[in-house]
Design brief:
It comes from Phyllobacterium trifolii. InterPro entries: VapB_antitoxin. The chain has helices at residues 9-19, 24-46, 63-66, 71-75. It is mainly alpha-helical. Helices cover 43% and strands 0% of the residues. It starts with 8 loop residues before the first helix and ends in a 24-residue tail after the last helix. The chain is elongated.
Length: 99
């Protein structure tokens, strides 16, 4: 779909620096995908506990990646799945690190 939109120059420059992407269409697409992922996660959180027989939503990362705090994991700006420990002050860290 083609559309004409007004974008904040400073915000676009910050997005370019953070992502390394210079193409405006790619930045907008990535922003929309991130928005959909985050809002979907918020909806899952909102219904949390109301469906006791529900199974956990699939995550895109392996269990090892989710529990690792490697430099690349810390550089990832968005979670690809939601875990209840992120909603409380009690967070789970890998065996080699601490809070």
């Amino acid at each position: 779909m083609r559309s004409t939109i007004n974008l904040d120059d400073a915000l676009m420059e910050k997005a370019r620096l953070l992502t390394g992407t210079n193409e405006t269409a790619a930045l907008v697409r990535q922003a929309l995908e991130t928005l959909v992922r985050v809002e979907s996660g918020k909806r899952l959180i909102a219904v949390g506990g109301t469906m006791p027989d529900a199974k956990a939503a699939p995550c895109r990362r392996s269990a090892a990646d989710r529990h690792s705090l490697s430099a690349s994991a810390l550089a990832t700006p968005m979670l690809t799945c939601w875990h209840p420990s992120f909603l409380t002050s009690e967070r789970t860290y890998g065996p080699e690190t601490s809070a």
